[in-house]
Amino acid sequence: MIDRRSILGGAMLGAGALGIAAYAGRDLLIGKKATLASGTARSQLLIPPLYSGEREGGERVFDLNLRHGVSQFFDGLETPTIGINQSYLGPTLEMYAGDTVRMNVTSDLSETATVHWHGFHLPARADGGPHQPIEPGGSWTARFDVRQRASMFWYHSHAHRRSGPQVYQGLAGMIYVRDSASEALDLPNDYGVDDIPLVVQDRAFARDGSLIYSTRMHNVMMGMMGDTMLVNGIVEPVFEAKSDRLRLRLVNGSNARFYRFGFDDGRSFHQIGTDGGLLAAPLPTDNVVLAPGERAQVIVDVSDGRPVSLLADGLEIMGMGNRGRGMRGPGPTRDSDRPVDNWMMGERERRDGMMGGMMDERRRFTVLDIRPAASRRRAIAMPRQLATLPQIDPGDAVRTRRFVLDMGMGMRMMRGGGFTINGKSMDMQRIDETVRVNTTEIWQVENASMMAHPFHIHDVQFRILDRNGRAPEAAEQGLKDTVVVYPGETVRLLLRFEDYTDPDLPYMYHCHILEHEDAGMMGQFTVTA
């Protein structure tokens, strides 16, 4: 048994670069309330610029610059940040299925960075993982065909052992892929008006407004979490709804925190999409759970004209057992005096379970206050069918591969050997798996640790076959690139590898808690002819 005090007493492993403040013991003073005791005025939601690139010689060309910046998250305080073409985060890139795109990336940062196109099927040389570094003052060009179904993807740093601090300070952005089938549907589709991208990130701030990032052992183990919610870089934003029905595209861009999203009045809504595109049909629900890296599209009706708030409950990620998503409770409520529902564990298991003293401190965040305008567009009727998804046939698989996620404790973790897949920590010089092009495989992912892990695979969108032998719930039956594996759980995925081969340059698979990725819970695979 390791209690919270012993973990918090772990030695500092090192401070982040790029001007991020580190903390230890009493130097810690984080959060909006500590930073600005007087509070700040509520800000309108910032909609990231929509950037469709420029047409050049049959290609859609995007020019992206990684740069240092200064952001003002609180009145009167300036925060050093990094961003893409701006001070914090980046524009929403817009492209279409069938496009050939060229990404021209330059860097004015002071350390090596990368830009990974999360969720895309593309050549390994264009993936933007740790094997495509961009040095300070350098540049990198990626060319690839857009072979995705319509959805919202995202791009972010994937620098070797530096993904966590770089994403934390702002190196991320969203991508809209569109296709003719989805554009023909009667869905809210007016960017920034009734089709709203929301990148959700918890952050910690020091008294002077600087971001706090620490690699002390507790934060490596649990992942870096903060007590202030940023949504598109705004604290607790307000949005004026000029349409009776809104399409919210959510990306959990936090380094480590899991969320359950729902509305403060308990109203139901429809989930229409997952990581890789639309579901077969709209799914009525009152909450959506997203781990770091996961995305969802939801449609909410505000035709009653009443203000409503989208809330997010931070969820426990230690000692859950294999209960997970199958025990969803009702969505969050605004009543801040009521304890957050412990929907993943019974009270007895939570009290008596191993590592019970190290669970993530649960928090409730306001994501977005929605205020319907007096005059609004009338609601669009919800389509009954959204997309035709390929049939799942495990019999197509030519083999099954096993991946065991584990994490050590104490000194082993501090020395960098605690986070493993199949007993190995990440080694840039080692190819862990080799797969054949034009084949289908089953990847069996097992969690031997006491903490939930979101498992992300580059290059492919996969389908979930089962969790401990049980079919996935409806919200997970679409195309996915990131899947949560709970402690003691086995999840089987069906993947097909097509189009691209490279015997030398690998793709990654890893935990998308960025501190776990940086600490070694990552492996590499190549696709060969």
Task: List the keywords.
529 residues, mainly beta, seven-stranded mixed sheet, 8 helices, 8% helix
Structure overview:
The chain is mostly beta strands and 529 residues long. Helices cover 8% and strands 40% of the residues. The chain has helices spanning 4-8, 32-35, 163-169, 180-183, 217-222, 347-352, 410-414, 514-519; strands at residues 50-51, 54-56, 59-74, 77-84, 92-96, 100-107, 116-118, 139-145, 151-156, 172-178, 195-203, 228-231, 234-235, 238-243, 245-252, 259-263, 269-274, 277-285, 288-290, 295-301, 308-314, 364-377, 397-407, 419-421, 433-436, 439-447, 453-457, 463-467, 482-485, 490-497, 502-511, 522-528. The radius of gyration is 22 Å and the shape is globular.
Into which percentage range does the β-strand content fall? 35-45%
Low-confidence stretches: 1-17, 23-40, 320-329, 334-360
What structural class results from the helix and strand content? mainly beta
Q: What is the assembly state of the chains in this entry?
A: single chain
Side by side, the strands of the main sheet go 13-12-11-15-20-17-18
Largest sheet: 7 strands, mixed
- What does the overall shape look like? globular
How many helices does DSSP assign?
A: 8
Q: Look at the structure and give the mean pLDDT.
A: 87
Rg is: 22 Å
For the terminal residues, how far apart are their CA atoms? Answer: 48 Å
How many beta-strand elements? 32
State the helicity in percent bands: under 10%
